[in-house]
Amino acid sequence: MSGLYKQIYNIVKQVPVGFVTTYGDVAAQTGNPRRSRIVGTAMAACNDNTVPCHRVIRKDGSIDGTFGLGGREYKKFLLENENITFLPDGRVDLSKHLWIY
After folding, report:
1. Phi, psi (deg, nearest 5) at residue 85
2. Domain map of the chain by residue range?
3. How far apart are CA 72 and CA 62, in angstroms?
4. Are 96 and 18 in contact (CB under 8 A)?
């Protein structure tokens, strides 16, 4: 595992239950806000169940469809189990649940 992936996973591990962060926010914490795609790749490659990858979403609050075996619906299920609320259009209510490192 690369040092950058370890850094990304350590940042994501700090996102508390009931909150989400964005790919871009995680990228910014690595020192380069242009690394959001790398953050997405790191989340897709993660096989460490201590990293709450489901808490990393798009900047508009939408959930991507490339999350593990269950895809988007499973990611939404995990977030709902943490009492994350969604707007009528299916996006996470970032006004209530956005966590900034």
Report:
1. -100, 155
2. 3-97
3. 10
4. no
Question: Can you name the CATH fold of 3-97?
Answer: Arc Repressor Mutant, subunit A (1.10.10)
Copy the structure tokens of residue 24.
């871009």
* CA separation for the pair 57, 45 (Å, rounded): 15
pLDDT value of residue 101? 75
Angstrom CA distances, 16 to 11, 20, 35, stand at 11, 8, 22
Q: Which residues are identified as catalytic?
A: 53
DSSP secondary structure string for all residues of 75-91: HHHHHHTTT--B-TTS-
**Burial of 21: CB neighbours in 10 Å, binned 0-12, 13-18, 19+:** buried
DSSP assigned state of 96: H
Q: pLDDT tens-digit profile of 34-80?
A: 999 999 999 988 889 999 999 999 999 999 876 666 688 889 999 99
Q: Which amino acid is at 97?
A: H
